[in-house]
Inverse folding.
């Protein structure tokens, strides 16, 4: 990422920070009116970069998710707010294969297919997930790797679990699945922010960002926003051509090779 | 650093590494007078380019690297176009079969294995044969005996086959079946391994078809251009595994490297050159074999589901 971009993100955050302070300050000043119902908390959020463009110099990008809790009020027992952010990329069917040794050579043997695996899946939170809410609560909102809906579980054997774990582990190694406890930090009582790195191999498409607000293990509010990762410029042109007009693309590749070969011949020929 | 994002391989590579690889392979092919695909594709795989993309992109690079050689031979009248045409027809059939084979293997998750195994077998055999041959020749030379050039005999089983054709420039009247089969075999090799196929085509032309050595190189280069072009197109259409940017960078490096390689090659003796090439071929085969035999650090792998 370029330094300018980092500055921009900082600026965006500061602006949001200022805006939220402006919005929330009156709430603190006035306090809930006697007799009136206490307005419930609402979480609001945004992303530093809603459009991520992949060009030839793309080596990954850091995005900032920030937000605020409207109508924030201290809890009677002093429990803090908890925020969980789930960033999910476009889904894809994946096959997981396990190598087996056959005649001294390792070859792909048993395999298992998982439907609708998110191409990117990051969970950021203020604390470890288990400390924020119960397993059931997390599963209900489909938060966390274990809550991913990966198509019908045709068998629940030990092997099935092994393949599932391997898939998650490989995705984590490629930084396409990220489980970031303590990645969200509060600034004051109602503002929070967190950063996540999208790696170079991040899939293109529409992403959703879900921000959940919890306190005392209770789900309070949810906010959603979208994020678009797309190839632009030359990369987009090449990709579109290769997948939508493969004949033109192939012919262009051959023509370029022939022309460059001819050019080299003219340049270096001795006869 | 000069990182470049490859649009189809979907990884970011160092521009200088790719240009250097192209130049190094170009240098070696210029020096030894070989296509270089047999080195380029494995090295792309070693760099982390998915094997199927390395194969298709390697084929595209060979189109460019064969043009100057073919043109030079053409101007000297060393291309038998009739023979070349038959070899191309066989080559196209082989290419289609090979590309569809890669597609099917990809769906079953065995494409990478097939490519590696193909290389180990192909390079291992050729490397050993070449090494034995050049060691024999070097020893003979040291003993003061003249390096004998094996003179191909006049007739073999090839002459008994039907569908005979006249190949004027090769001064041959033989069946069209053997060149068709040789062409098909080369087509399969190009599409599955991303090599030019000159490695087997040249010996087959000399020893099987008994073509005069003067037209062998020109005719094989003539065939290679057409078949690698067809394979490039077929992979682009059926497998979407062609990375045009990667190919372009490799071609730029290759063109430059090739010129210097040719000059360096003239300073080395033929027998030494062949022994050196044989060692290089064997080294690549062994490196790939190790990759197949050593217990992988991770037994599991993931890939998108490819429809058959």
């Amino acid at each position: 990422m370029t330094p300018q971009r980092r500055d921009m993100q900082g600026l965006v955050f500061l602006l949001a920070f200022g805006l939220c302070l402006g919005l929330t300050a009156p709430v603190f000043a006035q306090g809930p009116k006697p007799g009136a119902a206490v307005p419930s908390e609402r979480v609001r959020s945004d992303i530093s970069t809603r459009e991520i463009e992949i060009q030839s110099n793309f080596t990954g990008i850091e995005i900032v998710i920030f937000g605020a809790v409207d109508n924030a009020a201290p809890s009677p027992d002093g429990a803090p707010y908890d925020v969980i952010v789930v960033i999910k990329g476009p889904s894809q069917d994946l096959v997981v294969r396990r190598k087996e040794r056959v005649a001294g050579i390792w070859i792909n043997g048993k395999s298992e297919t998982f439907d609708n695996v998110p191409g990117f899946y990051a969970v950021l939170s203020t604390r470890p997930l288990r400390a924020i809410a119960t397993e059931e609560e997390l599963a209900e909102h489909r938060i966390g790797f274990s809550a991913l809906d990966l198509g019908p579980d045709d068998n629940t054997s030990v092997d099935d679990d092994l393949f599932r774990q391997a898939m998650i582990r490989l995705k984590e190694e490629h930084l396409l699945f990220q489980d970031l406890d303590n990645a969200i930090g509060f600034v004051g009582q109602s503002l929070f922010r967190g950063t996540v790195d999208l790696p170079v191999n991040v899939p293109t498409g529409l992403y959703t960002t879900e921000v959940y607000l919890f306190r005392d293990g209770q789900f309070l509010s949810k906010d959603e926003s979208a994020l678009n990762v797309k190839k632009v410029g030359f990369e987009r042109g090449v990709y579109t051509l290769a997948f939508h007009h493969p004949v033109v693309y192939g012919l262009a590749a051959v023509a370029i090779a022939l022309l460059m070969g001819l050019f080299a011949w003219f340049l270096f020929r001795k006869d | 650093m000069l990182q470049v994002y490859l649009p189809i391989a979907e990884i970011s590579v160092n521009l200088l590494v790719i240009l250097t690889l192209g130049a190094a392979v170009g240098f070696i092919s210029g020096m030894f007078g070989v296509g270089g695909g047999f080195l380029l594709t494995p090295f792309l795989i070693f760099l982390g380019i998915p094997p199927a993309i390395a194969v298709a992109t390697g084929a595209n690079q060979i189109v460019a690297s064969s043009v100057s050689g073919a043109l030079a031979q053409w101007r000297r009248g060393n291309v038998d176009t009739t023979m070349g045409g038959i070899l191309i027809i066989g080559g196209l059939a082989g290419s289609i079969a090979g590309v569809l084979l890669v597609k099917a293997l990809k769906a079953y998750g065995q494409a990478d294995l097939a490519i590696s195994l193909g290389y180990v077998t192909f390079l291992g055999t050729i490397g050993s044969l070449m090494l034995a041959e050049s060691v024999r020749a070097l020893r003979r030379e040291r003993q003061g005996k003249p390096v004998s050039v094996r003179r191909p005999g006049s007739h073999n089983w090839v002459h008994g086959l039907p569908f005979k054709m006249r190949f004027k420039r090769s001064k041959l009247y033989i069946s069209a079946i053997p060149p068709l089969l040789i062409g098909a075999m080369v087509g399969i090799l190009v599409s599955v391994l991303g090599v030019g196929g000159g490695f087997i085509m040249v010996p087959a032309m000399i020893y099987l078809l008994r073509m005069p050595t003067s037209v062998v190189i020109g005719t094989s280069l003539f065939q290679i251009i057409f078949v690698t072009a067809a394979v490039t197109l077929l992979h682009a259409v059926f497998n979407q595994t062609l990375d045009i940017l990667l190919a372009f960078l490799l071609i730029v490096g290759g063109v430059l490297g090739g010129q210097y390689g040719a000059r360096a090659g003239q300073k080395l003796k033929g027998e030494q050159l062949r022994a050196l090439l044989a060692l290089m071929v064997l080294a690549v085969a062994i490196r790939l074999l190790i990759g197949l035999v050593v217990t992988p650090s991770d037994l599991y792998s993931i890939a998108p589901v490819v429809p058959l």
